[in-house]
């Protein structure tokens, strides 16, 4: 994999770079957000690891900027222990997943692999529900004729909701889509659904995803 690593803690950056390189990855590492923007534009990055506290731009600003430039590779953010607000901001800005420092190297590698696998494509071509259409191989959402860029996690959740349109889908089912093993934080699902609502329905007039109290979510539009 080609991995973009943005971490200003010199020791951790060095440690992660050797770890990832030893596991047969190519690492583009930097301690600056502005350099990361150049790498993201110039190299075919598969996945990015971004620390949220950086010296030039914040990690959150960096993620927002990458997403504003329609760069869709999956992003995993690194946060300090217990810093819940940071984690939510990172996810809201467009990250797909997060890891709390200090973390186990095996877990980081597993998460990176899972993210890249999930963003790698599907077999069947399209799912269309109402005005919303998912291209399953390019992983692009179109609303009417307009393409909307989704991150890996947003895409996974939307695909599952659309495939199960008009049925209640529990938060746990969605969590299983993202993590596979029943682990993971339900707050991630909440943030992804809230991001999807904004992307699917910026004016707030169609409300395609409803919350069913204590049960989960439902994609409220029938297949066409
Ligand atoms: Ca830092």
Report on the structure:
It is a single chain. The protein is α/β, with parallel strands linked by helices and 224 residues long. The chain has helices spanning 10-22, 33-42, 59-68, 84-93, 105-118, 152-163, 171-179, 186-200; strands spanning 2-6, 26-30, 47-51, 75-80, 97-101, 126-129, 132-135, 140-143, 146-148, 168-169, 209-212, 216-219. The N and C termini lie far apart (38 Å). Calcium ion is lined by residues 8-9, 51, 53-54.
What are the defining features of this structure?
single chain; 224 residues; Arc Repressor Mutant, subunit A; binds calcium ion; alpha/beta; 2 domains; 8 helices; Rossmann fold; five-stranded parallel beta sheet; four-stranded antiparallel beta sheet; 12 strands
| List of distinct ligands in this structure | calcium ion
- Proportion of residues in helical segments: 40-55%
Q: Report Rg.
A: 17 Å
Beta-strand level of the residues, as a percent range?
15-25%
Q: Record the strand order, biggest sheet.
A: 2-1-3-4-5
Helices and strands, in order, run as: EHEHEHEHEHEEEEHEHHEE
CATH topology of the largest domain: Rossmann fold
CATH-defined superfamily of the largest domain: Response regulator
Q: Summary?
A:
The chain is an alpha/beta fold and 224 residues long.
Detail the topology: elements first, then pairings:
Layout: E1 2-6, H1 10-22, E2 26-30, H2 33-42, E3 47-51, H3 59-68, E4 75-80, H4 84-93, E5 97-101, H5 105-118, E6 126-129, E7 132-135, E8 140-143, E9 146-148, H6 152-163, E10 168-169, H7 171-179, H8 186-200, E11 209-212, E12 216-219
Parallel strand pairs: 1-2, 1-3, 3-4, 4-5
Antiparallel strand pairs: 6-7, 7-8, 8-9, 10-12, 11-12
Helix pairs in contact: 2-3, 3-4, 6-8, 7-8
Bound molecules: calcium ion.
Calcium ion binds at residues 8-9, 51, 53-54.
């Amino acid at each position: 994999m080609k991995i973009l690593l943005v971490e200003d803690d010199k020791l951790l950056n060095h440690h992660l770079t050797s770890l990832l390189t030893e596991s047969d990855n190519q690492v583009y590492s930097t301690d600056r957000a502005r350099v990361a923007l150049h790498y993201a534009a110039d190299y075919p990055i598969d996945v990015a690891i971004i620390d949220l506290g950086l010296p030039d731009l914040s990690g959150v600003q960096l993620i927002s900027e990458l997403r504003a430039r329609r760069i869709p590779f999956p992003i995993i953010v690194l946060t300090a222990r217990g810093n819940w607000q940071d984690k939510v901001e990172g996810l809201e800005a467009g990250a797909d997943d997060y890891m709390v420092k200090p973390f186990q190297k095996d877990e980081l590698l597993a998460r990176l692999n899972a993210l890249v696998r999930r963003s790698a494509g599907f077999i069947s071509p399209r799912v269309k529900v109402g005005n919303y259409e998912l291209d399953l191989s390019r992983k692009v959402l179109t609303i009417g004729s307009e393409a909307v860029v989704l991150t890996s996690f947003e895409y996974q959740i939307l695909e599952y909701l659309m495939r199960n349109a008009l049925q209640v889908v529990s938060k746990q089912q969605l969590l299983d889509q993202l993590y596979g093993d029943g682990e993971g934080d339900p707050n991630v699902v909440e943030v992804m659904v809230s991001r999807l609502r904004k992307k699917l329905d910026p004016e707030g007039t169609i409300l395609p995803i409803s919350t069913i109290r204590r049960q989960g979510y439902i994609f409220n539009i029938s297949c066409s």
